[in-house]
Every structure is written in structure tokens, then in C-alpha cells.
Amino acid sequence: MIEIGGTRVPMREQSVEERIKNFRSVPCGYNKEEVMKEAQRCIQCTGVPCEKDCPINMKILEMIREIAFGNFKKAFFIMKEDNPIPAITGRVCPQESQCEGVCPVSKRGNGINIGKLEAFVADWARENGVKEDIHIKERPGKIAVIGSGPAGISCAVDLRRFGYQVTLFEALHKAGGVLQYGIPAFRLPTEIVDYEISYLSEIGVDVKLNFFVGQNIKFNELRRDFDAIFIGTGAGAPLFMDIEGENLKRVYSANEFLIRVNLMKAYKFLEYDTPIVWGDTVGVIGAGNVAMDAARCALRLGAKEVYILYRRTKNEAPAREEEIQHALEEGINLKELVAPKRVLGDKDGWVNRVELFKMKLGEPDKSGRPRPVKIDGSEFIMKLDTFVEALGTKPNRLFLNKASELDVTSWGLIEVNKNLMTNVEGVYAGGDAIRGNATVILALGDGRKAAKSIHERLSKN
Amino acid sequence: MSHNIVRIEALSTENYLIEVEAPHVAERFQAGQFVIIRIHERGERIPLTVADVDPRKRTVTLIFQVVGKTTMELSTLKPGDTLINCVGPLGNPSEIEKFGRVICVGGGTGIACILPVVRALVNAGNEVISIIGARTESLLILEDEIREASTETYIATDDGSKGHHGFVTEVLKGLLEKYKRPEEVNRVIIIGPPQMMKAAADVTRIKKIKTIASLNTIMIDGTGMCGGCRVFLDGEMKLTCIDGPEFDAHKVNFDDVISRLSMFKEKELLAVKHFCKHKQKKAGRQ
Asked: Contacts of residue A396 in chain B, CB cutoff 8 Å?
């Protein structure tokens, strides 16, 4: 019997005891019966708020309908029309504040679990070797895409589908940007990222790894050699607090901590060569997704106690709901209303304490969240032996210095017009490089939009 | 995109030279820059000094000291083997101008790093006095190349087996006694172990001679992403990979540099042990 509305089909997950000892995916994913049952909850409403709220306007309604009837292949093709990496977005999108949040069914419990439906279909296609037929009609035009994160991927895919010659430049030894170095395997399994990215080469995008535009080739040489450029260089440079003690050992930026663990596989040290060191008690500053990721990585490495140190409270935490919930379930302690004053160490230069201010919530700030206010004289010492700063990141100034003809804001964000073109003719930008820390799906949306602008520009000529 | 090894040579019991095909690096390298290499799919990313490039052969010559598992493994490779990555050139080139008289101080493997700097400075019309040193004569590398490139060359060994018996900093001090007036030495460049750079910076600080040190910190990406290579200049944080590797030696907090270099020591020892055991097993099977 088809049940409309009703409660969400629960997602099976690895048990807490088990999962904190490994880096495997926490959710186990739906099976065929579960996914169809969940899809059948959809009331196929006419307003389609889910699609309107999706930054890439995926045809969610149609996708769900096909899933409900068990037509996974069809559902996969519908999804792929708009989304080059559904196995990834299904896992990392903040669905609760997008498609699932506006779902009318959510008024009676939880909205349709769109993210997990998406992930199921993408996984099903991968496991069954289902691929779309690719028919590309070649057309003249060479385009360089800088950065192989979500923005670069979607821009490259769309431009290639239009028929252009696309070269994708990546500075690291693996493509994927933040998907590869930032998001841990228990949230986004590496083999899934690798598979989704292999699609680029399959459709004929020329992926050039280990290539830093600005160092290996001058930006203006690139401009000379290509008909258009898309910059999707993200926001990869870590922010530090600029407090005493950041020179100490076992003080990390979340970027370093996560790059070691995710990209370099330091959790498999000895099998892999990159080391990581941690102590029994780990403190992570910040309460975004990256902070949760770092904290949960520390736990899996074997730290005994892990603290999220946050200057506001759980209600204001920017992390996705699922990430906070998973972190808390796993025994991570959320210490609210504290902010570090300085980091202290022993005589050999290892961090062993942090001095914290107590905070209180004040008037709302520009973000609409209550401003954290320091309580004078409230300093206290907390013992810890590993300190990870997850304060957010900003665009890489190395690239910006080498492409100095681009207009940037005081924050180092590249300025673009409504077509995502920069002040330099034929050079476009999107993703975190223009937004600062945002989401995978917004970056995907930018990549698509820029691809469309580039296509309009080149097909006009 | 792997990089073919065309030559590998032991320069001493600790130092090796490896020449690899890396067209992008060979084409654009400027003195002072470095590369990041990875040997294989499971390897770590380590920064290495570029001693020379041959744009015609499209190769780079890297010189390294065996200090951990990766460099140990690197030293066992043979011509025809490959490196999976050789990214670069990274970092800023050395500031090369006509300064006048420049003293270049190289210690240990740092001699390899200072060689292209010496050559570039001489090409720019400078008089270059090189001071190179090592613990003992057998560890002294590239002496002939440095002598050939420099206007004048001094040598120091800790055990006195060659040249001055003692540290390069003592030779530097002596030279600064000779060239007493500040305008007689226009710049000092020091590349070597951080302890030596710290001592040399102390010598020139008193004389107020502009001094540049090239730092070799722990790095992962080499493009400003991890922040692991952070150093502090008069309290201000800088990243060695993108702000350096050369910095004003009088501003660098070398104690931090020295301390942070030891962060992964224990793990490195573990990896070396593991590697040696593995190698023995392999040798036993053959």
C-alpha cells in the first residue's frame, strides 16, 4: 500500500561503538525497498518548492516519481542532466535548509529524504555500471577551468557537453578540491569521489593535475592560449586566530589536520607515508562542518576526549544538523560560549593548555545570529594536548597575486557581474572564490551558470 | 603523469643527487625555488631543493639528505624508476640584483640550495664569497661547483677534516672582521640547518647587514593551503611555501622553526623502522 506523507523511512547507520573506530560511511544508505517506500511518501505537489529551492534546480519531483516506481535508471538520467556529482551532493548538501526544509510533507514530521534518495540512485548506477550515453558534438573553442572542486567540475562538465575543448587545472595530485582534501571518508567515501570525478575524463575533459596556474603557467599566458577561463579556485587558505601559542606543536589549522587525514590518508599511517600526531584530549575551535569533521576525525584516530569549543551556542552553530547530531552521538563534547585567549605549551614546545574566555550572547550581528560577547575577567585554563583551528578559510592569495589584473574585495573574493564574469573580458569565476565559505551545491550552481555565460559568449562570436 | 629518473648518485653517505624529467619545472625554475615530490601513490609530499635544471633535457636535479622514510626510499631508486609527482617550481625566486659583494653561507644539504643562488648572483655582476660547511669532509657536497661559481670560497668542517676547524659562522665572523665597513658586504644569504642559520643571523645582526635565510619547513601542499609551514617574523605569521622560502633572517624566530621541525620525529622513526623491516623481508625473499 502506498503511504503518502507519514514518517520518514529511517536510515540505517553504523553503530556509534563501531563507527568511531573506522573511517567508513556512517549512514549505510537505503536499500531498494526502503528507497521506494521513502519516495512514495512524496505527495508530488504542484508548487515544487524543493526544485525552486535547489541552487541547481534539479528535477527532483520527476526523480522521486521514477524512484517510487523503481525506475532507478530513469531517475539517474534525470538527475545527471543537472547534477554532475549526485553521489556527492546527496551526501553533503545542507538539505534541511534547502529541498527537504521546504518540502510540504515536513509540516507533518520530516520532509522527503531527498539527499539519501539522490545518493541511492547515484550509488545504484555506479554499482550496476549504468552510464548515460554521451554524445558530444564538437564545436570550436578552448576553455581553461582553474580548480577541480565542485565549481570547476560542474563548469567543465557543462562546457564539455556544449562541445568545447576543456582543460581543467588542479594544483594537487588528485582532482576534487575540497571533496578530496576536506570532507572525511566517513561522510564522503573516497572511492565515490574518485568515481564521480572519473566522469570528467570519460566525457573528454583534459584534467591536468599537479599544475598550479600562476606558478606553472602565467595567468596572462593562459588568457592568450584559451578563449575563456573559469576560476573555481575556492577558498583554500586557512584562517588563524592570531593569538599567542599558534607556533606550538600539535596546533593545526583544520585544513592541515584534514589534508593529512583525508587526502594523504594519515589514518592509515605506515601503509601510507604521511604522519599525523595527536594527543588524548583534542580541542577544536569553531562549530561549522569543518570543525565537526576535524573533531570526528580526531576521535577516529584514537583521541580519548574531543571538545568543540564554540563562542556561541549549539543553536547558532553553522554546521549541518546531521553533522552536529552525529558528532554528539559519538561522544564529542560541545563546550558552548567559550573563546580562546591564548594557547600554552610545555618547555619543549608542545601545546598542553588553552586559556579561554567565557562568552555570553549579545545583540544580533549582521548574520542575524546573536553576537558573542566576552565576559571580562572570566578567563580559565583548560588542559588539552591537540588544538585544531576550524575558523573558516579564505581564497588563496598566491593565485590572486599571480592574477593581479582581477578585481577582488578586501577579503580576497573575486568580484563578478551577474553573469559571473570578472572585470577581465572572458574570465569568469564562481564558488567559494567569489563567495567565501559556502556550500558544494552553491559552487555547482555557479559552475553551471558560468558555463552558460561562457557558451553564450562564445557561440555569439 | 610520472617523472622518469635519469640519474641518481650518492654525493656522500647522507646526501644524494637525483635527476628527473620534469619539463614544467625545468622550463620555469628560478634560483631559490623548490619542488614538492611524491614517490608513489601512498607516498607523502615533501619539499626538495632544486640544485640545477637543464631546460634542454627538460630535467631537474634535486639534492636531498636521507633523514626519514621518504628520503631513504628515494635513495634506493634507480634510473628508469619514476616519481609519481614533481610539482613546481614553488615558492618565490631569490631576489637577484647587483648588490655588490655578497656572502653566501651554505651548510650541509643547504649547499645544494645555495648553488643556483650563487650562480645567479654572479651572473648579475656580484662578487660572491661562498662559505660552505659540513660535519666532516666526506659529507661536504658540491665543493667543485661552488668553487667554480664563486669569486672566493671558504670551507669549514666541524671536525677540522677540511678547511676551518669549526662552524661556517666562525668563518663568516672572520670575514666580517676583514670587511669592517658596513658597505663592504652588501648582503648575506644563508641556507642550511636552522641552528646554523640562527647562529649566522646573530653574527650579521650586530653588523646590521641585510641577511636572507631560506627555510626548509615541513609542508604538505606547498601552495598555502595547510598552514603547516608557518613561521613567525617579528611575531607576524608567514607561510614558508608562498611568502618564502626566503625571509629576512634577522626577523625569523628560528627557535620556532627548530621546534616545529621536530613535530613528527617519533612517527618518522616508526616509518623508517617499518621501511627497513619491509626491505629486509623483501631481500630475504629474493
From this structure: 223-225
Domain A240-391, architecture per CATH: 3-Layer(bba) Sandwich (3.50)
Of A215, A242, A273, the CB nearest to B44: A273
B133: in domain: yes
Query: Which residue pairs, CB below 8 angstroms and at least 24 apart, start in B262-268?
Result: B262/A249, B262/A349, B263/A249, B263/A250, B263/A277, B263/B218, B264/A275, B264/A277, B264/B218, B266/A277, B267/A269, B267/A275, B267/A276, B267/A277, B268/A275, B268/B67, B268/B68, B268/B69
Which residue matches cell numbers 671536525?
B159
What are the beta bridge partners of residue A432? none
Reference B113, options B189, B203, B186; nearest CA is B189
The x, y and z cell numbers of residue B252, run together, are: 625569523
* B65 shares contact with chain A (CB less than 8 Å): no
Which residue of A212, A240, A273 is in closest CB contact with B42?
A: A273
The last residue of a domain, from among B214, B248, B266: B214
Q: What span, in angstroms and rounded, lies between the C-alpha atoms of B220 and B241?
A: 9
ipTM for the complex shown: 0.94
Domain membership flag for residue B252: no
Domain A16-127 has CATH 1.10.1530.10: no
Domain span holding position B63: 3-90
Rounded Cα gap, residues A61 and A43, in angstroms: 9
Give dist(CA A324, CA A328) in Å, integer: 6
* pLDDT tens sequence for chain A (461 residues): 455 667 899 999 999 999 999 999 999 999 999 999 999 999 999 889 999 989 999 999 999 999 999 999 999 999 999 999 999 999 999 888 899 989 988 877 788 999 999 999 999 999 999 998 888 999 999 999 999 999 999 999 999 999 999 999 999 999 999 999 999 999 999 999 999 999 999 999 999 999 999 888 899 999 999 999 999 999 999 999 999 999 999 999 999 999 999 999 999 999 999 999 999 999 999 999 999 999 999 999 999 999 999 999 999 999 988 899 999 999 999 999 999 999 999 999 999 999 999 999 999 988 788 999 999 999 999 999 999 999 999 998 889 989 999 999 988 999 999 999 999 999 999 999 999 988 999 999 999 999 999 999 999 86
User: Which residue has cell 635513495?
Assistant: B75
Arch. (CATH architecture) of A142-236+394-460? 3-Layer(bba) Sandwich (3.50)
Task: State whether residue B2 sits within 8 Å of chain A by CB.
Answer: no
Per-state percent for chain B, helix, strand, coil, to nearest 5 = 35, 30, 35
Evaluate whether residue B251 is within a structural domain: no
From the number of C-beta atoms within 10 Å of its C-beta (0-12, 13-18, 19+), residue B145 rates as middle
Chain B residue numbers with beta carbons less than 8 Å from the beta carbon of A148 are none
- How far, in Å, CA of A217 to CA of A138, rounded? 26
- For residue A418, count CB atoms less than 10 angstroms from its CB and return exposed for 0-12, middle for 13-18, buried for 19 or more: exposed
Q: Which residue has the cell 669549514?
A: B156
Contacts of A264 in chain B (CB under 8 A): 44-45, 220
> What is the value of pTM for the model shown?
0.94
* Bridge partner residues of A421 (DSSP): A428
